[in-house]
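[AMINO ACID CHAIN]
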Amino acid sequence: MSMSQTKSLSDRALLLAVDLDGTFLGGSDSDRRALYNLVESRRADVALLFVTGRDIPFASSLASEGVPTPDLIIGDVGTTVVVGPDWTPHSAAEAWIDERWPGSERAAEIMKGRGGVKPQDVFGGRRLSYFYDDEAAALEAFPELEAAGYAPLLSAGVFFDVLPPGVNKGQTLLQVMSHEGIRPERVLCAGDTLNDFSLFETGLRGVAVGNSEPRLREAIRSLDNVYSAKGEGAGGIVEAIERFKLLPDVMIEAQ
């Protein structure tokens, strides 16, 4: 699907900053059609940012499967930023991330041989990524990682990421917004797992979709800026757009 560049990101009426698995790619077929049709029919007004734990090759390949092409991708849990349509690095955001990444060597040494965790085969960005099946064992690594200058993160009951301190989906999104001149009131963030919580911590308007993991639901209870949707995946995003009247002149329906 095509991507309009008739307006800069700062001039769009709405910027959707969406997680992928379980969120933008989640929900029923009809809900996905409704959301994707809206994005495509209003590309002059709607900017689309993928904010995902997935790597750039995966996120950038989704257009071949009928998913709208994003204007920009924040990948690898906030540790890589590229700009469409050629997926070139966002130089300012990437420089900010580089300044904060201590390098992988010490973290890899700390994690080597730990029970209950297994390295992921494929990941990108300035991070190390693992799967975990024993939360207590995974948490034991946190103090040593933090003391060495890293920010460990568990999410979805299976993912263990070692990130640069102060770098996550939310803070990287704020960096992009600052450099692109995007006004906060024009942004809607959407997610479903704990690695999306940093998006909501920014104070930006957000939606936790209906299939969000219980720990995310619990974490957002005190946040007035986040709406807990009933609809799952894309359906929850559609629900939030309608609830907040972000595009009041548009009737959202599947086609």
Notes: The first strand starts at residue 14 and ends at 18. Residues 154 and 160 are 5 Å apart (CA to CA).
